[in-house]
């Protein structure tokens, strides 16, 4: 057995409880800010790992494992549909903010750590 799956599992064991903890901080908001926050932060962290760290070990542990478990596309999708149903403006805002901020976070990470 290779060590790679264990590195991913180790990262996931850190990312999943962190995601749960952030999810308990906010409830009953029109825009699901905890999901938005973890996706933006996770996107930034993945960008830092991808563009700034050459180690495969760190990329697997932090990028695939921790960021994969920390961020949540499925929750984003579900919460956006729920928000669109209840409040179309809030649902649309959530979808647009999530996309723009998450992609921007990766771009900022690239600018911050990529070699010149």
Automatic annotation (TrEMBL):
Q: What chemistry does it catalyse, as a reaction equation?
A: fluoride(in) = fluoride(out)
Q: Which domain of life is it from?
A: Archaea
Q: Which UniProt keywords apply?
A: Cell membrane, Ion channel, Ion transport, Membrane, Metal-binding, Sodium, Transmembrane, Transmembrane helix, Transport
**Membrane topology per record:** Multi-pass membrane protein
What the entry lists under InterPro entries is as follows: FluC
Q: Where would you find the membrane-spanning parts of this chain?
A: 31-51, 58-78, 90-113
Q: What compartments host this protein?
A: Cell membrane
For the ligand (Na(+)), the binding residues are 68, 71
A GO BP annotation? cellular detoxification of fluoride
MF GO annotations:
fluoride channel activity; metal ion binding
* Activity regulation description: Na(+) is not transported, but it plays an essential structural role and its presence is essential for fluoride channel function.
**GO cellular component terms, A-Z:** plasma membrane
Main subcellular location: membrane
Q: What does this protein do?
A: Fluoride-specific ion channel. Important for reducing fluoride concentration in the cell, thus reducing its toxicity.
Query: HAMAP family this protein is in?
Result: FluC
As for family, the record states: Belongs to the fluoride channel Fluc/FEX (TC 1.A.43) family.
Name used for this protein in its record: Fluoride-specific ion channel FluC
Source organism per entry reads: Halorutilus salinus
The taxonomic lineage of its organism, from the top, reads: Archaea, Methanobacteriati, Methanobacteriota, Stenosarchaea group, Halobacteria
Name the gene.
fluC
